[in-house]
Design brief:
- The protein is mainly α and about 280 residues long.
- It folds into 2 domains: about 1-75, Orthogonal Bundle (DNA polymerase, domain 1); about 100-275, hpI Integrase, Chain A.
- It has helices at about 1-10, 15-25, 40-55, 55-75, 105-110, 115-130, 130-135, 170-175, 195-205, 215-225, 230-240, 250-255, 260-275; strands at about 145, 150, 165.
- Helix 2 (about 15-25) packs across helix 4 and helix 3 (about 40-55) runs antiparallel to helix 4 (about 55-75).
- The longest helix has 20 residues, at about 55-75.
- The model is unreliable at about 245-255 (pLDDT under 50).
Length: about 280
Amino acid sequence: MDRYLDRKRSSIKPNTFRETERYLRNHAAPLHRLRLDQIDRRRVAALLGETETSAGPASRNRLRGALSAFFSWCLTEGLLDANPVAGTAKADEGGSRERVLTPDELLTLWRSLGDDPFSNVLRLLLLTGQRRNEIGHLRWSEIDLTRKMIVLPAERVKNSRQHEVPLSTQALAILSRVPRRNTSDYLFGKRGFTKWDNAKKQLDQRVGIAPWCLHDLRRSAATYMGELGVLPHVVEQALNHVSGAKAGVAGVYNRSKMSDAVREGLQRWADHVEKITA
């Protein structure tokens, strides 16, 4: 596993590497004591089932993907003759790609948040519409307070293009409450926020709403901005989502960041969240 991670460190994005390492070192820990030839489909299936029970179907699927890639590498290295993940099933994540939280659910969720790092991460995820690790691994050096923006470097985003996120007054207020440490540039933890599964599980016990995932906050932000009259191409720019108006030739030739329109759209959304949760 150490050899595999050393190879992967330089060939995949830092956020992807951190996730892969976390799943292999933590979630796959019950397999560590076994020789490679002792790990069969039955053991992998049992581990996936336990992970789904404790952390949910999304974590099961991410662990399955990490293990499958690792054992495929083992095949190419001549360490195994078969991939023990082959034949195991992916979990049904319950149609989460369609989930948008209702105003009542947003109110319940918001009022269940505290002053801890995970709560602040969730507030920023909802207000900015950004991806989980883009906010969870946010650094002070990526925040331009003069321009009131988050500036994400290319290596930190999915499409490998620098992304600027205008900050609403509500998002700035949250950032102003986050303590700044001399020992780390990260806002949430020494290496960014990493305790996603445990924190989400504890929150769900308090919230008591229908099953949801963190990506639903991003989808909710996009959906409500559209309902508030923010134009689709502005929503896509805010979320750094390349499709529709930004895809293909149009995406190559129209690189305008539309900062003013995006700022107005995110502020309109943040004001709506404040109205819902007041």
